Amino acid sequence: MLYFKEPKESLMLEVDPCATAVDVNTTELPSSPCLIIQGDMMKPSGWLISIEGRVVIGPHPFFLHGLAAFFSSYYVFNIEYPAAGSSTLEFIQRCFLGINPERGSKTKKRTTMNPHVSTLLRKLVDFEWA
After folding, report:
1. With 0-12 CB in 10 A as exposed, 13-18 as middle and 19+ as buried, what is 24?
2. In 1-76, alpha helices (H)
3. How far apart are the C-alpha atoms of 104 and 2, rounded to whole Å?
4. Which of 10, 51, 72, 105 could form a disulfide with 85 if both were Cys (CB 3.0 to 4.6 A apart)?
């Protein structure tokens, strides 16, 4: 998210490690899917997911499962990526998940790949990382 200069609050929210769905302040939640991390982001104790300002899943302990549920919620509910986090989500989609449509995107009406995502993917391929 730092590479794309996108605020982490557009996709993630940190709460107290013992917080439940009732404890989460719904006024801070965006309308798009949000991954709510219990505890420190680098060492999470659990996760929840909110959609349209309401906690719908969690708490659960395995962070990788939370990341998968968060990302798949955009596809399951056919939700467009939020503008503030679209480049990060598109990068995850194309680089790590291998979802590379010929045209179209889950972002706002664009027919080609985001140029910032394309540049980062090209740089990674140049270093043979991907």
Report:
1. buried
2. 63-76
3. 25
4. 10
